[in-house]
Amino acid sequence: MTGTRRALWVSTSTQTRGGIATYVTTMQGTSLWANWNVRHVVTHRDGSAATKIAAFASGTIDFIMQLFRFRPSVVHVHASADASFTRKCTLFWIARVAGVPVVMHMHGSDFWDYHQRSSRLVQAVIRGTLQRAAAVVALGEAWAGQLRQIAPGARISVVPNGVQPGGLVAQPAPDEPVHVVFLGRIGERKGTFRLLEAWAKLMVELDAIDPGRGAVDLTIAGDGDVEQARRRIGELGVGDSVRLHDWLPQSRVHALLDGAHVLVLPSRNEGQPMAVLEAMSRGLCVIASDAGGLGEMIGGGCGVIVPPDDIGEIVDALRLVVTDHALREHCGAAARERVSEQFDADVVARRIDELYRKVAR
């Protein structure tokens, strides 16, 4: 490849809620953005159906104009499942017709389920799209294995999500309060209600040991079934130890993590949650299930892994990290080191740069 390097990114707006928007915002702050003269086309926004249709229509026009005016060396498409993949698939084939190599970056934790429940025709389109991409990015080895089953001929590269490391959080002394945080879409998939059940049991146990000590608290923040969570908190009688927030902007998420000591996410299905990476980068102790890519993220001593549907195991994990100061510090330090080695945004940017150099025209 010779001449000016140009990359055209296609994704949801950076103002939307979710991991893709956070990832794109993070990568905008790396050298990759300037080195490849990256331009960003928005094809989705939060809002009504009309808002989403309008965003895709205007994004498609912008995309076509960029193909012929900007003349990118590579198109980098960020896709999830369902409607997200349909939108990106459409733009993928437009880029193919224009002769521009396309990197398909698969973010959706439920992409396998989307493929399995689709008709044979849609499965063929999915397979054909992945196999004709210049490269397909999987966030981890677990997702790479699934994508290889879907599209055996696809050229798959494993490139994890990236995060700008936060400041190191100091774990509290043994006699100081421990702050536990849940971040994500509130509902069954992320394990919010199972966490609340476990938290109620933990409070009973701790109160029996030291009544009224108030040494732990839980903050839940996210969109989704917020009102249902509010009702459940009342039913379980844990309102004095649980704070509930609706979706928070990124600045407030960072502030919340800066004051936390433990992040818990007992999900049934996950990709590579940005909230977990943010927590790991600050040296928080993470409790999470081994769903999707979580095991690769926190396994090997970088966190505590729990079965997502076993409330008793979640209680045991919470009790362990709340009461064991040394364990919290050890897991947090190991997690922060892993982020530095594998998930630092600058490290990820270099890997994407290498990928572009292989596939760009």
Termini gap: 6 Å
Mean pLDDT: 92
Low-confidence parts: none
Instruction: Give the number of helices.
Output: 15
Instruction: Tell me the domain tally.
Output: 2
Q: In the CATH hierarchy, what is the superfamily of the largest domain?
A: Glycogen Phosphorylase B
Describe the strand arrangement of the main beta sheet, using strand numbers.
2-1-3-4-5-6
- Largest beta-sheet characterization: 6 strands, parallel
Overall body shape: elongated
The tally of beta strands, per DSSP, is 12
Helix content percent band: 40-55%
What is the gist of this entry?
The chain is an alpha/beta fold. The protein has helices at 19-28, 31-35, 49-69, 83-97, 111-117, 120-132, 141-150, 192-209, 226-236, 250-258, 274-281, 294-298, 311-323, 325-343, 345-359, and strands at residues 7-12, 39-44, 74-79, 102-106, 135-138, 156-158, 178-183, 216-221, 242-245, 262-265, 285-288, 304-305.
Could you walk me through the main structural features you see in this protein, from its secondary elements to its overall organization?
With 361 residues, the protein is an alpha/beta fold. The protein folds into two domains: 7-162 and 345-359, Rossmann fold; 178-342, Rossmann fold. 50% of the residues lie in helices and 16% in strands. Strands 2-1-3-4-5-6 form a six-stranded parallel sheet, with helices on both faces. Helix 11 (274-281) links the parallel strand 10 (262-265) and strand 11 (285-288). Helix 8 (192-209) packs across helix 13 (311-323). The radius of gyration is 21 Å and the shape is elongated.
